[in-house]
Amino acid sequence: MSEYFAPLRDMRFVLELVGLEAVSALPGYEEASADVVDAVLDEAARFTTEVLSPLNAVGDRVGALLGDDGRVTMPDGFAAAYRQYADNGWNGMGCDPAHGGAGMPHLVVAMIQEMVMGANMAFSLCPLLTAGAIEALSLCGSDELKRIYLSRMVSGEWTGTMNLTEPQAGSDLAAVRSRAEPQPDGSFRIFGQKIFITFGEHELADNIVHLVLARTPGAPDGVKGISLFVVPKFIPEADGSPGERNDVRCVSLEHKLGIHASPTCVMAYGDDGGATGWLCGEENRGIEYMFIMMNAARYAVGLQGIAVAERALQRAMHYARDRLQGTEAGAGEGERVAIIRHPDVRRMLLLMKSQVEAMRVLAAATAAARDHAAHHPEAAGRERAQAFVELMIPVVKGWSTETGNDVASLGVQVHGGMGYIEETGAAQYLRDARITNIYEGTTGIQANDLVSRKIARDGGAAARAVIVDMRSVVAALEASGDDSLRAIAEALSDGVAALERCVGFVVANWRSDMRAVLAGAVPLLGLFGRVAGGWQMARAALLAHERLAAYDSESAFYRAKVVSARFYADHVLSQSSGLAHAVCAGAVSTLDETLA
Amino acid sequence: MKVLVPVKRVIDYNVRIRVAADGSGVDTANVKMSMNPFDEIAVEEAVRLRERGAATEVVVVSCGVAACQDTLRAAMAIGADRAVLVATDAELQPLAVARLLHAVAQREQPGLVICGKQAIDDDASQTGQMLAALLGWGQATFASKLELSDGRAVVTREIDGGLETISVALPALVTTDLRLNEPRYASLPNIMKAKKKPLETLTPEALGVDVTPRLITVRVSEPAKRQSGVKVADVAELVRKLRDEAKVLR
Q1: Which of B79, B77, B82 is nearest to B45 (CA)?
Q2: What b/e sequence results for A271-295 when a residue is b if at least 16 CB atoms lie within 10 Å of its CB, and e otherwise?
Q3: pLDDT tens digits for chain B (250 residues)?
Q4: How far apart are the first and last CA of chain B?
Q5: Rounded to whole angstroms, how far apart are CA atoms A21 and A36?
Q6: Best mutation site among B192, B197, B228 for testing chain A: the one with the most A CBs within 10 Å?
Q7: Is there a domain that residue A473 lies in?
Q8: A33, A50, A382, B193 — which has fewest CB within 10 A?
Q9: Which domains does chain B have, with CATH numbers?
């Protein structure tokens, strides 16, 4: 058994908690009423469970294959599933209706994306990259480029890729060497090699639109001399149909630890005289455009961490309820019990479950803020939301993917030896999860972004605004008069204090001792995620508590939610002060020159 | 030609059914509900008829609580044009549903009614047949293939040991078997459009139909728990147990 069921009940709870109602009330989102969203989630759950999930294991086993003719073959079933995904409008769910999208809010899109990723992470990368390319084109493409490409990419008829990395230019894009030579007709000839190009070649769609970073002749050195180009696999005819084959080829596929059904390509541009491309936006501003669209991509990868963790949790829960081993501890002789009865297995399952829930609600709160940042009728409302989004993107990306790895690893552990065996399925989730904290910026890169641009730059203002919100939740928990909620309040209060101490440390030392701050950046990111997740779990517990007091008929769900929040407080939040110590005092040894 | 498709809101097929503690019925509190899968096949077939020009309009109808609206919207997301809800909180048995559908059919005057062959909750498999009788129409039940031509419906039925093909004069009633088609997944734009399609609400009173139950449910109980198996030493012991204990051999 290695099925996936979309966690609809928890998703609906999360939508209520983070305020779908307020999002649907924003101008432009009127269509996303509660009943429509409900129907959409139901159908997305069916599609992902019945069509995408069954391809997850075969995708891993067979993987994408490169033939001698340079063609990439996807595992059986992927082409039909992709066609269905596109035909049914999921590819354009969040896109502008002007280009054929459904214009759904980020908040709703995030839930559906999580389902797609949970059902089949490798598959999910194709639409994820297309969405990034759509965003880049919408942002800086000329009207002509938009006319030719956008509606076809929104419909999923054509897919997109992002070509940034080169062998010598990974996290350091200043080292990009690909060249673009201007032609008399206004186009460019592109030359160079790009690596790690996800879905760089495949035959799921009629055309592939590569967005490529390259340098024009005489461009300045470093990041300020890089431009963005549109390079299609087939050059569109005047009527937009795919025409002549362009001079861009997949020359190799990487052999990877996981996501085997996602072709990771080495792309060669211009081996045969130059690939035809068109400048997207202004010359030398490529990196800037990348940064604007990076938020969406980083957020989406954060969702992958959550999605794979959810799947690992489902697998582990199923096994723990099914597997009989040993007798109930302390009961002496007796019948063998399911391992879910054993205290440490319960601890592992709750550690998985509570963190998945915390990550989901924090990501959803961030998605809702993205909606407010884009559609709030008042400038102040948009700015406030955008500040929260900017602060949270590296947290959602870095913390959710690191925790996703932890959860997937626990998933293997719950299975014992069976978890190490591929047929069980748990191992695939761990292997698949391992890329999420690497691509779209490693955790180290996210943490540097958090401390430098998101905390130090505004003197900690955005972080402190969130801390104020967190404290108001602590106060509400304390006022509840409930023992569990008060225990959560205590742990959250300690966590918030630890976070505040670290924010103060970053602001005070950024200019004078940048290396010391950076040495603690990843622990701080972990602390930020942990405490922000605890803050959202506390809000969840408050809502659940309120429902239980009102004798809601779903008492089992709400009781479990309070238990989950309590567990999180006792096992996850409780480690906050240790992390704070690592942030504020850990640099002495890290920077000691004995390590050379 | 108009096609009328009755749809029923039932417990989702993925849900593990629990019997209510007092034995009065099945526990439906907070249980996921969805469209009866056989009805989904009926909606799909009707929409395909319209798509290939054999029908002009597909009307879906459901009888029951207000939440049946969700089921009707789901049918419209597949492609039905509009919906009728006969709203009632009363317990509805097959004969009452057939009478309600009869009243709706008289208002709508369809040329064809397509029903699921049975609902997966009570497995009664009665409503379609009763409705055909009330309408005085021919019926072709358990259809695995449906073709319309020259005012007749040619229906292939799955019967024990083979297939039977019959031809009935329209108007007629057809009930669907599992292999008639594979219902599509609703597309995102169609789910959003379904919200805007017309949904009319009627009541049994307005239709002049008495829905009072005729049958009394005495008791609902779980199936007997399966006994755990035993390991037999050899074939001789197996044969002996089959003969003496299971009494399936003589």
Answers
A1: B79
A2: eeebbbbbbbbeebbbbebbeebbb
A3: 999 999 999 999 988 888 988 888 888 888 889 999 999 999 999 999 999 999 999 999 999 999 999 999 999 999 999 999 999 999 999 999 999 999 999 999 999 999 999 999 999 999 999 999 999 999 999 999 999 999 999 999 988 889 999 999 999 999 999 999 999 999 999 999 999 999 999 999 999 999 999 999 899 988 888 877 888 999 999 999 999 988 888 7
A4: 60
A5: 12
A6: B192
A7: yes
A8: A50
A9: 2-221 (3.40.50.620)
| A39–B194 C-beta distance less than 8 A | yes
Q: What is the pLDDT, as a whole number, of residue A3?
A: 86
Q: Residue A526 belongs to what domain range?
A: 445-596
Selecting from B30, B74, B185 the residue whose C-beta is nearest the C-beta of A88 gives: B185
Exposure of A505 by Cβ count < 10 A (0-12 exposed, 13-18 middle, 19+ buried)?
Answer: buried
Q: Which of A183, A194, A168 is nearest to A249 (CA)?
A: A194
Q: How far is A487 from chain B (nearest CA, A)?
A: 30
CB A91 within 8 A of CB A20: no
Max Cα-Cα span within chain A: 87
In a domain, A554, yes or no: yes
What are the structure tokens assigned to A408, written together? 């997937």
What is the per-residue pLDDT across A144-192, written as a single tens digit (0 to 9) for each? 999 999 999 999 999 999 999 999 998 888 999 999 999 999 999 999 9
Query: Do β-strands A72-73 and A234-236 pair in parallel, antiparallel, or remain unpaired?
Result: unpaired
Asked if A359 and A406 count as a contact pair (C-beta separation under 8 A), the reply is no
- Report the percentage of chain A scoring pLDDT > 90: 94
The pLDDT value recorded for residue B57 is 98
Q: How many residues does chain B have?
A: 250
CB under 8 A, 24+ apart: contacts of A242-247: A242/A158, A242/A206, A242/A207, A246/A275, A246/A276, A247/A271, A247/A272, A247/A273, A247/A274, A247/A275, A247/A276
The total number of structural domains in chain A stands at 1
In which order are the strands placed within the sheet that holds B199-202? Answer: B162-169, B152-159, B138-149, B172-176, B112-116, B2-6, B57-64, B82-87, B199-202
DSSP character at residue A74: P
ipTM of the prediction: 0.90
Residue A552 has pLDDT above 80, yes or no: no
Among the partner-chain residues A84, A87, A553, the one whose CB lies closest to the CB of B30 is A553
For position A205, what pLDDT does the model report?
Answer: 97
Cβ(A454)–Cβ(A386) under 8 Å? Answer: no
Q: Do residues A287 and A238 make contact, with C-beta atoms less than 8 angstroms apart?
A: no
Residue A509 is assigned to a structural domain of this protein: yes
- How many angstroms separate the CA atoms of A75 and B100, rounded? 50
Contact B191 A36 (CB under 8 A): yes
- A307 C-beta neighbours (distance < 10 Å), count: 32
Q: CB distance A43–B185 less than 8 Å?
A: yes
Q: Which residue of A has its CA nearest to B34?
A: A42
Residue A203: count other Cβ atoms within 10 Å of its Cβ: 13
| Closest alpha carbon within chain A to B188 | A89
Cα B203–Cα B204–Cα B208 angle in degrees, nearest 5: 120
Inter-residue contact A510 to A452 (CB < 8 Å): yes
